[in-house]
From TrEMBL:
It comes from the Bacteria. It is found in: Cell membrane. This is Cobalamin biosynthesis protein CobD. Belongs to the CobD/CbiB family. The keyword Hydrolase does not apply. The chain crosses the membrane at residues 60-82, 161-183, 301-319. Pathway: Cofactor biosynthesis; adenosylcobalamin biosynthesis. Its main location: membrane. It comes from Allohahella marinimesophila.
Amino acid sequence: MLSGFIISVLVCLTAVALDHWLGEPRRFHPLVGFGSAANWLERRLNPASHAEPKALRQPLLMGVLAVATLLAPLMLVAVLAVLLLPAHILVMTDVIVLWLTLSLRGLREHAMAVAEPLEAGNLPVARQQLARIVSRQTDSLDESAVASAATESVLENGADAVFASLFWFLVAGIPGVVLHRAVNTLDAMWGYRNERFLLYGRCAARLDDGLNWIPARLTALTYAVLGNTATALTAWREQAPAWDSLNAGPVMAAGAGALGVSLGGPAPYATGLKQRPVLGKGPRPDAGTVLAAIRLLERGVALWLITLAVAALMAYLQSGGA
């Protein structure tokens, strides 16, 4: 009988293959339904989302209640699946769940939708496509700023929606990967430092920080190993601490260093121009940088899968092939 680790590695290989062949479901994606439920609950629990006086409710406590309400049933189902499903059904369920939490092909498609018109000199279309994947204002961005935003999105979301999913599945199976993706989705929706979400979204943001701490640094190390290693490690060490995100800083600093470009800098948002530190060293990005970021991410996934496959093979041989 194959060990649990070997089965988990086979699940990872299969799920990544499914993502490559099929991509994300175009309709009825579970994360879309989860996001709709989170929006519904937020409109009812967050004092800043309606006219009820804030004095009547505590946004921080309401945020904790919202997170618990959304996560509890998911975790119950995930744990019961592990405990009750027959082994062969559980393996198939593992593959489907991990596939649904991966977004490697989706990231590539979204990034290519920006890079291709940008390379062709069609800046308006590139801006429109960029607006689908970032929260900043894109109407006034020049070519370099569009390329920078798309590159940052690939690097950061590669950590959240690819490497962290693989990591948490290997560590804790279905419960781990479901918990991570649910929390990461809530952080993407509520983790803003504005009046509406500063307190209400704090619980989701802190949980996301904790769950992504190790995967983010493994991702940064992966980018560094596969690119300009010295520059990437220097950027990670010297520039990442100045970034306002505990986990995005190392990922994007190492990614920028690995690619040999400068990311960060001023970025326009609905609340105004946000001054951000410069990450990396080198020229500003262009369309080719976006393509290079995609290749870096895909090579990183290949490195992880090859490493896991070798480790699984060694475990199999050491067990006598049983």
